[in-house]
Amino acid sequence: VCTYNALISGFWRSGSIGKAFKIISFMRKNGCEPDVVTYNIILNHYCDTGMVKDAEDLMKKMEMSGVNPDRYSYNQMLKGLCKAHQLDKAFAFVADHMEVGGFCDIVSCNILIDAFCKARKVNSALKLFKEMGYKGIQPDAVTYGTLINGLYSVGYHNLAEEIFEQMLKAQIVPNVNLYNIMLHNLCKAGHFKRALEIFSQMIQKEVSPDIITFNTLIYWLGKSSRAIEALGLFRDMRARGIEPDSLTFRYLISGLLEEGKASLAYEVWEYMMENGIILD
RNA sequence: CUUUUAUUGAGC
């Protein structure tokens, strides 16, 4: 079953949905029934592509065929409902299916906090953030990242920074995503000095920047007439063994061109061509 | 590393 599931997941990721279904009928023929993981793979696809109705049907089907949904199933379904902007339905789902079985965990809370933030209901997000502590669910780096991003996006910059500091005090280890969120929002607000401080902090804490980190910084520096600094980061990233992608080049080149630094832009362009990267 | 959550345009 594991092998089949791995195949199904792989085909699905690469978009060969037909092949994935063929494997399912093949495994059935060979007397191997799909298990909860098989269902979860398909459920996840439905939820990610907004096919919530199909996801709901699939959940019913799995219950009927005696396969009990697990916390992955429920959380995926919850995410699907939230993404479809069916928040009320999502709450009903939590109350009816998840709380009774003890399926509410840190992932469920994170999904809900994100949904609140995206619906610009930051106060509800903060409320849940506080309540989860009482329920014995400790916020993790994802929780903080989600919440901080939500706070910035509605303009609560000070609160976002406070919560970031609170997280550091609570000994939660920030990861690269969390730093990316901080950097993106600080740059967007024009707080480059602070952003670069945070960037140094992440290096000090030995959190390795990734391509998103660099692309974020290069984008915003280039947009703010600081293309030379962006170019410096472009060198740093290669020194760290991170290969620039087409976004990196697009950001860097437009930043340089905006400042009239055409010959530097051209050099970057040549480097890009040498590496076989095409702007899309 | 068989399956679930936040981050790399902008505004609204």
Commentary on this structure:
- By secondary structure, the chain is mostly helical.
- Helices cover 75% and strands 0% of the residues.
- It contains 16 helices and no strands.
- Helix 3 runs antiparallel to helix 4.
- The model has no long low-confidence stretch (mean pLDDT 93).
- The protein binds one RNA strand of 12 nucleotides through helix 1, helix 3, helix 5, helix 7 and helix 9.
Tell me briefly what this model is.
This protein has helices spanning 2-13, 17-29, 36-48, 52-64, 71-83, 87-101, 106-118, 122-134, 141-153, 157-169, 176-188, 192-204, 211-223, 227-239, 246-258, 262-274. The chain is mainly α and 280 residues long. The longest helix is centred in the middle third of the chain and has 15 residues, at 87-101.
Question: What percentage of amino acids are in beta strands?
Answer: under 5%
- Based on secondary structure, the structural category is mainly alpha
Report the total helices.
16
Order of helices and strands: HHHHHHHHHHHHHHHH
Counting DSSP E segments of at least 2 residues, the number of strands comes to 0
Intertermini distance: 40 Å
Q: Indicate the mean pLDDT.
A: 93
Unreliable sequence segments: none
Global morphology: globular
**Helix proportion:** over 70%
What summary fits the major beta sheet?
Answer: none
Question: Compute the gyration radius: what is it?
Answer: 23 Å
